[in-house]
Specification:
About 50% of the residues lie in helices and about 15% in strands. A four-stranded mixed sheet has the order 1-4-5-8. A four-stranded antiparallel sheet has the order 2-3-7-6, with no helix packed on it. The protein has a two-stranded antiparallel sheet with strand order 9-10. It is globular and about 80 Å long. It is built from 14 helices and ten strands. The protein folds into three domains: about 120 residues, Butyryl-Coa Dehydrogenase, subunit A, domain 1 (Orthogonal Bundle), CATH 1.10.540.10; about 110 residues, Butyryl-CoA Dehydrogenase, subunit A, domain 2 (Beta Barrel), CATH 2.40.110.10; about 150 residues, Butyryl-CoA Dehydrogenase, subunit A, domain 3, CATH 1.20.140.10. The structure holds flavin-adenine dinucleotide (FAD). Flavin-adenine dinucleotide binds next to β1, β3 and α14.
């Protein structure tokens, strides 16, 4: 069966189809043979990073005037689905530059900020990070305590962020901080853009995760970190809006990655079902195995259709906050179910490192937590329903 996403790709203009083909060749011919190396080092080798820059992977969503490709959310999602077929570190490296780490600057930055940062981010010269979560506030993001105090020269930031993706090698951080504790998320939180070299900003050692070395999360600690007035991103007091808007688009593109990884797991399962034998038959001849494949195909079909709908609404300029939550909830939960099922389909081999499916599961498991847990998505969806 042709995936609804592949059907949608057939309808794209030729240059977009050709671009996706180029990405597919890069992923399968250049990256995949290096998957094991990347799993050990946690980084794409320099020549692959060079090709990622040449292909424009760091600036897919950024405006053309700053060297980006200005792809819409749908095309960006399609690229992420392709990247699911290689080691996750390739996605991790380029993803934040195209989303959480740049969208505040893209949507709210001054011309000066855009020129300074977007140009470097689009070229892949600089890596961006997004600092919202704190040890004392994750789901309850409105309750952050990192403080930015106004001074005659600008601002001074104090506080600790944690689990910040790409922080170990990021050059620039979007930081969400409290500027008026009385007002809190209703006008008392502001966004800032902070260079790594700023005195008072320290990146702590990597916080190891079940995703393995390909995941790079750290604490980012601000101690008397002085930034100039022109480091403010967007209007004072609107930082919570900057953060939330950034997250809506992220939930859609993250779902595209989840779908791609689930498709990869199912393809591995399908191949194994056709070759592995038990009781004198291919395991794919057993109904129990067939149902695993069938349920997975249904879930991928549903998630793919939701992804296309969310992207179409976004292209029309609709508010997609609820759709993004529904898609992220469904795609991340189902992708985890699928990877778990595919481990089971592979039997003991599914549990081995060599089998490769356990790695997909470990990586996918993060998707139910990051950018708002499944519980928070359910809460958002229900709140919107009860408001109507
Ligand atoms: C790999 C990884 C990368 C990350 N990258 C970044 C990043 O780049 N930048 C960044 O800012 N953050 C990042 N995060 C943080 C991530 O967004 C948070 O971990 C997530 O939002 C959950 O917050 P928490 O960990 O504090 O969990 P908590 O908020 O402590 O939640 C604990 C549990 O309680 C549940 N819960 C909380 N409130 C409710 C409620 N009202 N109703 C029902 N259940 C509830 C949660 O769903 C969860 O199950 C990353 C996290 C991980 C694991």
């Amino acid at each position: 069966m042709t995936s609804p996403i592949d059907k949608a790709i057939e309808q794209l203009p030729e240059e977009h189809r050709e671009f996706l083909q180029q990405i597919r060749r890069f992923v399968r011919d250049d990256c995949s043979p290096r998957d094991e190396d990347m799993e050990k080092t946690g980084h794409p080798p320099d020549d692959l990073l060079g090709k990622m820059r040449e292909l424009g992977l760091f600036g897919l969503t950024l405006p053309e005037e700053y060297g980006g490709l200005a792809l819409d959310l749908k095309m960006f999602s399609f690229v992420l689905r392709e990247l699911a077929w290689t080691n996750p570190v390739v996605r991790t490296y380029m993803n934040i530059n195209n989303g959480l780490g740049s969208s505040g600057i893209k949507n709210y930055g001054t011309d000066e900020q855009k020129e300074k940062y977007l140009t470097k981010l689009a070229a892949g010269e600089w890596i961006a990070s997004f600092c919202l979560t704190e040890p004392g506030a994750g789901s309850d993001a409105a309750n952050i305590s990192t403080r930015a105090e106004k001074t005659d020269e600008g601002w001074v930031i104090d506080g600790t962020k944690h689990y910040i993706t790409n922080a170990p090698f990021a050059n620039v951080f979007t930081v969400i901080a409290v500027t008026d504790p009385e007002k809190g998320s209703r006008g008392g939180i502001t966004a800032f853009v902070v260079d790594r070299e700023t005195p008072g900003l320290e990146v702590a050692p990597v916080q190891a995760t079940m995703g393995g070395v390909a995941q790079h999360q750290s604490e980012v600690i601000f101690e008397g970190c002085k930034i100039p007035a022109n480091a403010q991103l967007g209007p004072e007091g609107q930082g919570f809006r900057v953060a939330m808007q950034t997250l809506d688009e992220g939930r859609v593109s993250l779902s595209a990655s989840a779908i791609g990884i689930a498709e990869r797991a199912v393809e591995a399962g399908r191949q194994y079902a056709m070759t592995r034998r038990a009781f004198g038959k291919r395991i794919g001849d057993f109904q129990g195995i067939q149902w695993m494949l069938a349920d997975s195909a249904v879930e991928i079909y549903a998630a793919s259709t939701m992804l296309l709908d969310a992207c179409d609404r976004h292209a029309r300029g609709d508010d997609i906050s609820r759709e993004a939550s529904m898609l992220k909830l469904f795609a991340s939960e189902k992708a985890c179910d699928i990877a778990d099922r595919m481990i089971q389909l592979h039997g003991g081999y599914g549990y081995t490192i060599e089998g490769g499916v356990e790695r997909l599961y470990r990586y996918l498991r993060m998707f139910r937590i990051v950018e708002g847990t499944s519980e928070i998505q359910r809460m958002k969806i229900a709140k919107a329903m009860l408001r109507e």
